[in-house]
Amino acid sequence: MTSHASGDGRVLLIGFDLGHGETAICAAWSESRDEPRVAELPHSGKSYPTAVALLTDSSRQHPTRTVIGGRCFAPRPRKRVLEFHSTFKSADLEDGGRTRRAIELFVSQVVRELIGMPETDDAPHDVIVISADTPTRWLFGTPSGWSTLQREAYRDLLAGLCPGEVEVLPESRAALLYGRESRDLPNPLGLLEGDAVACLTSVVIDLGSSTADYTIVTGLSARPLDTGNNALGASLIDKELMRRTVEGHNDRDRLLEALEEPGSRAHLEFRCRLLKEQFFTEVDPLEPDLTIARRTEEVRTSAGERIDVDIRLTSDVLDDITNAPLSTLNGASWREAFRDDLERVKAALGDDGPDLVMMTGGASRMHFAQDIAREVFGESRVVLGAEPQYAIAKGLVIAGRTRTRVEGFRKDLKDFAASGRIESIVDEKLPELAKTLGTVMTENLVEEHVIPAVLRWRNGELDLVSDIETEVARTREKYLSSRAFRSRVESEAEDWSKRVSALVDTRTAEICRTWDIPPGALSLSRPFVPRSASPVGSYSDLAVENLNTMGKAAVGAVAYVAGVIGMVAVGVSLNPVGAAVAAVVGVVVLVIAAVRGKEEAMRYARTRRMPGPLRKLVSERHLLGKIRAKTAEDSTEETAAAEFARTFLSEQRDEIIRLVGATVREHLEAAARYTELLIQPTEGPVAHE
Questions:
Q1: Cα 427 to Cα 416: distance, rounded to the nearest angstrom
Q2: What is this structure's pTM?
Q3: Mean pLDDT value of segment 382-390
Q4: What's the rounded Cα separation, in Å, for the pair 540 and 546?
Q5: CB 543 within 8 A of CB 465
Q6: Closest CA to 14 of 390, 361, 396, 387
């Protein structure tokens, strides 16, 4: 027996999987990394039917007594049973008060057994005794199909029954957290870590005693599916086993008469359930034919006469039961209905299918149900723990523990963000980006844009010398608007963001280690710069004022660099090619001036169309040689790149630091949400497939 009390700020997390047909409870300390322990209640065991009975008691001090679980199905005189409720979990708390009353009786008794129980040496080892002063947080699960209002009403009811905090979480979230962190699985599901979750599609199959629930989880959004088989649960097998047992009894009529007593019928059906669970616990999947589960139960007639009922289950009997048509399923067999449900779920996902199928619930232990799931979804995609009946309860505890860690991380992350360190890192690395972008903007300018424009002018395709500038602006703008250029800029920005990410990760990894969170789950494992389709903006036409200013002119330019910081285009008030083109035009005019004189060259350069023979006075080879020599001597492209970088930094530094810093913080916050798996059920009616 374990007693829990805390004076060190820790909180005892209690995962309360109140299922429609079966209930299980697990517990662990908020700061513990141990596997959540299953709580075994006295006289109930580790998992038990969701049933509660209010009985009369002979004690004067306590005229009534509440029992839960299997004890509710013990044969008793009808007059002793004041109230009996089973399979009562429902989102409808206003159904005449039945559901609310049943939950109040059931949960209150569980709490009493956990908290008020005396500590004795003969209590079972796994009984968890919670001292009255233990700080507790109770975590309950709800199907994803419940609305926000229904979940809030459910939480309000439970808050009045449990001491300490009460939290209500989607069961699909608990299932996936269980899959990611529980040691019940031989290999924890690493695909549920970090921002990989954003691209993940999972199916959670919660197969219980009374219901089968199917939830599709895409990223952090959960969508429940109603396949129409609301009554499909393992209890149908129990009922059919009981029906066949009664039909084959040698005193069938007298047994049927005895079973008209509701308590007797409930008792026998419960015993059939226990035998079925025993069978699946003991069966060898490789040799199922060797397993035989058998027990004899006693049923009393209204006159008090005893009838012995022999219940027997073998692999052949089970196959016969699960393949037989059932009126409850509109003539389909249990296997047919379950397979049809899974096919509907698969169809709802389209051609790709799910990345992961997590099976939870006590009925998931049925090997044939596992086989059907693997046949429908694929062998490698279906996973379940060693004890799927405790998966949700353990997952609820893990969710509470994860929340505690992530809350601490969020606080430290907020302090880190407020310290300005992110902005400092971006500022430190920004000159590298500016230099790279300057190179990308101006490389191959002379050979791929200026020289082809000069040749077009020399061949008479352009009228004025100044048209060379316009042509360069046109071809350069076309290139800067191309997918090839955008991809290049995006690639450089992505490489830069990786370097920034690495520096940020160094600090966040320390925060992760403090809160025992895998650093990879919260790192900027992929660059935070999203790809952008925004094209580079157009240039203004270039004008040559005179020969004396040609080499210095950097006229009218606004360029927009796509993808630099993602989501926005950054304006830069410098045309990095303006001076270069102006210088080249100057070279052309000077070469002509050397042959025909400066005055004539000036006249033709500004306003007049130069005659063809004049353009070709200098050979193409000589003209291009002069251009290449001059641009190499002046380091034209390098100078333009450096000027671009300087202007880029002076005009855009503050905005880029602000935007990149905000993007980094948003990424870390999103990563924290994915680490916590804050799955939100889709609001609205349940989808029908």
A1: 16
A2: 0.71
A3: 89
A4: 18
A5: no
A6: 396
Across 542-639, the runs of DSSP E, i.e. the strands, are: 559-561, 570-572
Instruction: Return the number of other C-beta atoms located less than 10 Å from residue 160's C-beta.
Output: 10
Of 294 and 9, more confident? 294
| Nearest-angstrom CA–CA distance, 547 and 605 | 9
Give the position of tokens 């990410």. Answer: 501
DSSP string across 493-545: HHHHHHHHHHHHHHHHHHHHHHTT--HHHHS--S-S-----PPPPPPPPP---
Bridge partner list, 413: none
| Secondary structure, 3-state, 17-55 | EECCCEEEEEEEECCCCCCCEECCECCCECEEECEEEEE
Q: Which residues of 224-261 are buried (b: 16+ CB within 10 A; e: fewer)?
A: bbbbebeebbbbbbbebbbebbbeebeeeeebeebbeb
Task: Give residue 597's pLDDT band: very low, low, confident or very high (50, 70, 90).
Answer: low
Phi, psi angle pair for 62, to nearest 5°: -130, 85
Could you give the angle at the alpha carbon of 297 between the alpha carbons of 292 and 300, nearest 5°? Answer: 160
Q: For residues 420 and 425, what is the distance between their CA atoms, to the nearest angstrom?
A: 9
Q: Which residues are bridge partners to 225 per DSSP? A: 214, 687
- Residue by residue, DSSP assigns 659-683 as HHHHHHHHHHHHHHHHHHT--EEPP
Which structure tokens are listed for 397? Answer: 């505890």
* DSSP E strands, 165-272: 165-170, 201-207, 212-218, 221-226
Run of H or E residues at 299: strand 292-300
pLDDT for the residue numbered 266: 86
Please report, for residues 11, 194, 348, the alpha-carbon distance to residue 199 in angstroms, rounded to integers and kept in the order given.
33, 10, 17
Could you give the C-alpha distances from 259 to 210, 236, 254, 264, 388, in angstroms and in order?
A: 21, 18, 9, 5, 33
Of 642, 541, 633, nearest to 587 by C-alpha is: 633
CB-facing half-sphere around the CA of 396: CA atoms within 13 A? 32
pLDDT in tens, 20-45: 889 999 999 988 888 899 988 877 77
CA dist., res. 465 & res. 589, Å (int): 8
- Give the Cα separation of 261 and 56 in Å (integer): 18
> DSSP 3-state assignment of 600?
helix
Integer Cα distance of 197 and 190 in angstroms:
10
Distance CA 132, CA 119 (A): 13
SS3 track for 103-158: HHHHHHHHHHHHHCCCCCCCCCCCCEEECCCCCEEEEEEECCCCCHHHHHHHHHHH
Closest CA to 23 of 81, 110, 105: 110
Question: How confident is the model over 622-673, as pLDDT tens digits?
Answer: 777 877 887 777 777 788 788 878 887 887 788 778 877 777 777 777 777 7
Question: What percent helix, strand, coil does the chain show, rounded to 5?
Answer: 50, 15, 30
Residue 266 CA: distances (Å) to CA of 84, 106, 235, 543: 11, 18, 12, 96
- Name residue 313's beta-bridge partners: 293
Q: Minimal CA–CA distance to 172: which of 675, 685, 680?
A: 680
Q: Which of 204, 615, 648, 148 is nearest to 392 (CA)?
A: 204
Q: Say if CB 107 and CB 186 are below 8 A apart.
A: no
Determine the residue type at 116. Answer: G
CB distance 569 to 620 below 8 Å:
no
Structure confidence at residue 95 as a pLDDT band (50, 70, 90): confident
Q: How far apart are CA 163 and CA 168, in angstroms?
A: 15
Buried b (16+ CB within 10 A) or exposed e, 421-435: ebbebbbebbeebbb
